[in-house]
Write a structure and sequence with these properties.
Elements lengths: L1 E8 L6 E8 L6 E4 L8 H6 L17 H12 L6 E4 L2 H11 E3 L2 E2 L6 E4 L7 H4 L6 H15 L4
Parallel strand pairs: 1-4, 4-7
Antiparallel strand pairs: 1-2, 2-3, 5-6
């Protein structure tokens, strides 16, 4: 199944702040936020941090990086061929970093594929119900993908 990915991070090259996966089918969404660094990028402080908690009850929690990796592993465990779809390279980079659990170690998985789409003309900020919130932006990406990439 396809999962649509969005992340929020602390400016260019900065630490991961939140990550969301929205499945192509169904409503079992994945969202984690990580503790923010001591020094926040001014843009992230103004445009990301105020909106990180705009997620459904049950998804509203902050985890250590280690626990976030464990939750990601559990979330993907039931899918034998997940496809992670993103519209921005940094999203895939942060996703892959979260898969790492230590030196030479990563979450257990049966294999997965990464797909970077050309989102020209798509803006998560313009299409998301809560811009700069990873979960809402991932939902907007799913809707964009389904309307532009899947034959009707």
């Amino acid at each position: 199944m396809r999962y649509f990915l969005d992340t929020e991070f602390n400016g260019f090259g900065g630490a991961l702040l939140s990550l969301a996966l929205v499945p192509e089918y169904g409503d079992e969404e994945f969202y984690v936020s990580l503790p923010p660094p001591d020094k926040l990028n001014p843009w992230a402080e103004q445009h990301v941090m105020p909106y990180m908690r705009f997620v459904p009850v049950g998804l509203d929690y902050q985890l250590s990086r280690e626990h976030a990796s464990q939750h990601l592993e559990a979330y993907l465990a039931g899918d034998t061929d997940p496809i992670i779809v993103a519209d921005w390279p940094d999203d895939l980079a942060h996703f892959c970093q979260l898969m790492l659990t230590g030196p030479g170690q990563m979450i257990d998985h049966t294999g997965l594929r990464l797909e970077l789409i050309n989102g020209a003309g798509f803006s998560a900020a313009a299409n998301s119900k809560v811009p700069h919130n990873a979960l809402h932006d991932a939902r907007a990406l799913r809707d964009f993908y389904q309307s532009h990439y899947i034959a009707h």
